[in-house]
Structures are given as structure tokens and as C-alpha cells.
Amino acid sequence: MDITDLKKGSIIQVNGTPHRVVKYDHSSPARGSAVVRTKLRDMRSGAMLDKTFRKGDKIESADIDPAEAQFLYADQEQAYFMRLDTYDQLGIAREVLGEQIGFLKEGMEIKVLLHQGKPLNVELPTKIELEVISADPGVKGNSATNVTKQCRVETGMEVSVPMFIESGDRIKVDTRSNEYVERV
């Protein structure tokens, strides 16, 4: 893999460990060769790493196998999933999942990313439907611009939504940015 093939979300191998590209900045100075500055997340531990690649550097892509799975439950340390093809139970540490844990609801089908047969992380759909459990009341007169308020959804996560959203509404949320998309 060449540095020009890198993009946000790519999974590469660094020192034998799979890393996901979180941030990517390509710069071509007036003199010299192109440089790509990346921020990488270790998919095993969740640790962040800043790494710079120069033109001509060879990057090894990680051998990742996605497996269809169903979210079962989460305890204080891990989230548990069941593979739909083998019915094996897989556990992934909460620290590794990060903010993604807030999108998981019981029975939800997702992809678990496996590296050498071990679960690393999950791949969520880009948009999911969630029910609003509680929403701050909207105050009249605050509608001159796009005013938002906080609400809590069924998974316990906080989402910023427009004033017209009430408790009991179903909304779509973008899992990449944690932003409200639409009312369902």
C-alpha cells in the first residue's frame, strides 16, 4: 500500500499491530517529497499514535476479517457479541470501543472486526435509529437560529437535537459524528 492509498478509516499494520487512521493530513511542500501526517488508533488497546509517512514509504495493510454479529450486553469492563455464523461469544474491552459503546443496543446486528481470529473492534452502520427517553424542554422565543437542546436516547447517550424533538420520538443519529440526522 502506498501513502496515496491512505484515508480516514483505513486499517494498517504498524509494528505488527493493526491501527485505524483517525486523522489524515497530506501536504506537498514546494521542495521535497510529499508527507502524510496521521493520527492512528491502536485497535487492540485504543491508544493513539502520531505517525508521519513520506513518499515512497511502504505501508502494510492489516488483514482484517469482518464477521456479522449481534450485540448481547455490556458489563463494566467489556461488551459482548455473538457471531451469527458460529454462535461464538466475543468480548471487546469498553476502552477499545470508546464512544461507539453509546450506540449499541441489545439485539443490534453489527460487524465485528477480527484480526488473526481475535475481536478488535466493531463497525457500526453509519446511521442508527434510537428512541428519545428524555429531552430538555424547548423554550419559546429561542428560535431565531438553529437552536438545539440535549436529549438522552435509549442507550444512555446524550445527543444534541432540534427544539421540536420530545420524549418518545424516534430519531436517526449519525454514528460517525454523534449528530442528529432526522426524526423517524
Concise account of the structure shown:
This protein has 184 residues and is an all-beta fold. The chain has one helix and 15 strands.
Plain-language structure description:
The protein contains one helix and 15 strands, in the order ββββββββαβββββββ. With 184 residues, the protein is mostly beta strands. It folds into three domains: 3-61, SH3 type barrels, CATH 2.30.30; 65-123, OB fold (Dihydrolipoamide Acetyltransferase, E2P) (Beta Barrel), CATH 2.40.50; 127-183, Nucleic acid-binding proteins (OB fold (Dihydrolipoamide Acetyltransferase, E2P), Beta Barrel), CATH 2.40.50.140. Strands 4-3-2-1-5 form a five-stranded antiparallel beta sheet, with no helix packed on it. A five-stranded antiparallel beta sheet has the order 8-7-6-9-10. Strands 13-12-11-14-15 form a five-stranded antiparallel beta sheet, with no helix packed on it. It is flat. The termini are far apart.
